[in-house]
Amino acid sequence: MNLDVVYSDAHLAVLNKPSGxxxxxxxxxxxxxxxxARAQSVWPDALTVHRLDMATSGLVVVARGPEVQRMLSxxxxxxxxxxxxxxxxxxxxxxxxxxxxxPEGWQDxxxxxxxxxxxxxxxxxxxxxxxxxxxxWRRKAGPVxxxxxxxxxxxxxxxxxxxxxxxxxxxxxxxGDTLYASPEVCARAPRLLLHARQLQFHHPLTQEWLSFEMxxxx
Length: 218
Description:
This protein has 4 helices and 11 strands; from the N terminus they run E-E-H-E-E-H-E-E-E-E-E-H-H-E-E. The chain has helices at 35-42, 66-77, 162-169, 183-186; strands at residues 5-8, 12-17, 46-48, 57-64, 82-90, 107-115, 123-125, 131-139, 148-155, 194-202, 209-213. Strands 1, 2, 3, 4, 5, 6, 7, 8, 9, 10 and 11 form an 11-stranded mixed sheet that branches. The two termini are 24 Å apart.
């Protein structure tokens, strides 16, 4: 089993998940190969703290044991973990300077999201029952695809498919998104062009500030 280990110690490990690999097991014998199963083949006490969509690549932290899992899960819940993603979206999202959240040019999007149970695994915008979600985004320099824009995405909350839904709601779906993009936009990339590039948090035992960055593969 291939496992790309970015960092490990006696308490946790940071892994680079490839696109196309589940974070946790799915239903059926064909969906048992996943990131946490591969981690447990190396560290039997490895436990899931957070997940990336199957189609999303990038950095994931796993806990070694239930106590560290509890501490890391609490850090995520308290928004003490800094996450940065990179994506390539269809078209060119307009930048509204009046909506900028900082001098660095971050734009803000907030929408109430809810699991779309009849159409699982999708989520949807639901103004009546949805849970608050917030993402900061801005343009990013890098390799350019014609008719598309590279963005940095900083999720403040962590709802299911939040980044994919927020980009779709802006009218600029992520290229290769099989769930939320139009067939034409989906077909513009061989995979979902969404990558968890950066992960930063305090080590739950030592309180050392840990910062990891993984090169974007697109």
